Amino acid sequence: MAETRNGFDPPNQGTSSPGAQRDSTLKIAIVDENPMRAAILEDGLREAGFTQVERISETRNLLARIYAIDPEVILIDLENPSRDMLEQMFQVSREVKRPVAMFVDQSDSASIQAAVDAGVSAYIVNGLKKERVTNILDLCISRFYAFSRLQGELDRANDALKERKIIDRAKGVLMKAKKITEDEAYALMRKTAMNENKKIVEIARSLLTAAELFK
Amino acid sequence: MSNAKLRIGYIPLVDAISLVVAVDSGFAAAEGLDAELVREVSWSNVRDKLNIGLFDAAHLLSPMAIASSLGIGHVRVPLIAPFNLGLNGNAITVSTQLFTALSHMADGDIADPIVSARALYRVVAERKVRALEPLTFGMTFPFSNHNYQLRFWMAAGGIDPDEDVRLVVLPPPYMVESLSSGHVDGFCVGGPWNSLAVDSGVGRILHFGCEIMARASEKVLAVRERWAADNPDMLSALIRALARASNHIDDDANRSAVAVVLARRLDVSVDLVSRTLSGNLRIAPDGTTRTSDRYILIGRNGASRPDPVQAAWLYAQMVRWGQAPMSDELCATAKAVFRPDLYDAALGGGSQRGEGEPVDGVGGFTGPDFDPSNVASHLAAWSIRRAGRPRLSVVR
């Protein structure tokens, strides 16, 4: 048991194993203003056997929230300006219950690079064994990548939808101005786009701008 | 060396202007550099990305470059500062309510920092008697002039900044909202954020940073010591591009043009940038203005040449407030972060401080002249300081 507790063995799966019990005792706080990514991260951590996971989506009074939760691991999105607030916890003041240090140390430039590339940063309570949080960080990195893929797909879908709408509006303008059918309007824009080596949506956008000016 | 690629991290602030103008107005390209500016949201990100090599160079809080080289607060990565991006440029802003309270307690002209500091002492004492929550002040980072200037000012009035008030790190974009919601009662930050608080009617600029310290290294161009050794030509080219950009900025004839260039990067009005650069700021919602030709120094008065005295002063603040232990070795390491030799080598001779600059190189509004050769005895002159064991451990 003592050996399991020092955390050098590979992580075990399943709730009944000593490994899972060990990890489930870790209190983890996720600081992320993006609710979808925070949910993905929390789900991932829970699936991996971590039961004490708290999400902080509001960054006002961030330090107070963190002191109240008193986590051993804090995960924060690198796009969150509040990261600088966490750095204040390195400064031991009367309000700090225990010092926190960044997970990665001198020898860990590969971990820090992987984390920064993925867009996540982890802070752990001083004295917590690195091995105990390695799998948490690995999990976060893969979840962050999964999220940005998802976000990318969503953005592309939204862009496509927006483009569709712009093209539809431009078609309407053309149909009215030139008294032509929808198909003819579309064919005209497509031909112009091909001639000018542009995308149809760019032609549609210019057309709408011009139509605005002629109003 | 033509078209050498460089990635440079920055935070959208007025004192990033030399970098912005160097890149956006072609000074970097003229030196054969293909430089890309990468906007960041936190100083921690800038530091980490510089440390691990995702950035070649960065706009960095001057004390952060020193802390990184000393290994305090974070992993030790030796950085050097071969170009000073700006001197001064901060201001202390307080809520309109706190300003009224301070005015009632003032025993003289509140524009005098010793008067305002004593007034703050009385406000703090009165709140204690009435068992009210301590006043809270925002600053941008533990290793920042914003932190040190607030502390220097308060302590002059008899306030212990660790015991009598709360100092909290707040990202600049949250400052104005935090002031209006009452989460903080005041803050120290760079431009344009003080002006935005005044313009939105929630704050009043109490002091310009230069009224607290006449000459303070605010941001430096930081690079890894190792990178500088491996890329001497690129570094020289970058120093020259920045020097030319800062001369261009300092020429009044270009004032409006450079304001346009910077405003585009900062997403604020051209007028606000112009006012900040000329040191002519609205300090109160009623339209009162204050002007100082020292408010922010870019290029002027030898501002670009890194001055090891500044580094020693910043190290002294780290010691005074318990962030670093006192040792001659650490002081020497701190001073060696600022590299006037590299600046001079790139430009063939350096500009000096010039007339009218403080004799001790920093010009604190109170207390004895700073003595960089004897930081320990200089610090002994201050009664309010953190004695005993430093709060941060040195990571070697």
Describe, in plain words, how this protein is organized in 3D.
The complex is a heterodimer of chains A (215) and B (396). Chain A has helices spanning 2-5, 18-24, 35-47, 62-69, 83-87, 109-118, 130-178, 182-196, 200-214, and strands spanning 28-31, 53-56, 73-77, 100-102, 120-125. Chain A has 215 residues and is α/β, with parallel strands linked by helices. Mean pLDDT of chain A is 77; it is low at 1-21 and 93-99. With 396 residues, chain B is α/β, with parallel strands linked by helices. Chain B has a domain at 4-86 and 216-268 and 298-368: Periplasmic binding protein-like II (D-Maltodextrin-Binding Protein, domain 2, 3-Layer(aba) Sandwich). Chain B has helices at 17-24, 27-30, 43-51, 62-70, 96-105, 113-129, 145-156, 175-181, 193-199, 209-212, 225-230, 232-250, 255-266, 270-277, 308-320, 328-337, 340-347, 375-380, and strands at 4-10, 33-39, 57-61, 79-88, 90-95, 136-139, 166-169, 186-190, 203-208, 217-224, 280-282, 289-291, 296-297. In chain B, the strands form three sheets. A six-stranded mixed beta sheet of chain B has the order 2-1-3-10-4-13, with helices on both faces. Chain B has a five-stranded mixed beta sheet with strand order 7-6-8-5-9, sandwiched between helices. The longest helix of chain B is centred in the middle third of the chain and has 19 residues, at 232-250. Chain B is globular and about 65 Å long. Chain A binds chain B through residues 59-61, 63, 78-88, 90-95, 102, 104-106, 109, 112-113, 116, 121, and chain B through 41-45, 48-49, 51-52, 54, 73-76, 140-142, 162-163, 166, 168-174, 178, 181, 183, 323, 391-392, 395.
Please outline the helices and strands.
The complex is a heterodimer of chains A (215) and B (396).
Chain A: H1 2-5, H2 18-24, E1 28-31, H3 35-47, E2 53-56, H4 62-69, E3 73-77, H5 83-87, E4 100-102, H6 109-118, E5 120-125, H7 130-178, H8 182-196, H9 200-214
Parallel strand pairs in A: 1-2, 1-3
Antiparallel strand pairs in A: 3-5, 4-5
Chain B: E1 4-10, H1 17-24, H2 27-30, E2 33-39, H3 43-51, E3 57-61, H4 62-70, E4 79-88, E5 90-95, H5 96-105, H6 113-129, E6 136-139, H7 145-156, E7 166-169, H8 175-181, E8 186-190, H9 193-199, E9 203-208, H10 209-212, E10 217-224, H11 225-230, H12 232-250, H13 255-266, H14 270-277, E11 280-282, E12 289-291, E13 296-297, H15 308-320, H16 328-337, H17 340-347, H18 375-380
Parallel strand pairs in B: 1-2, 1-3, 6-7, 6-8
Antiparallel strand pairs in B: 3-10, 4-10, 4-13, 5-8, 5-9, 11-12
Helix pairs in contact in B: 1-12, 1-13, 4-16, 5-6, 6-7, 8-9, 12-17, 13-14, 15-16
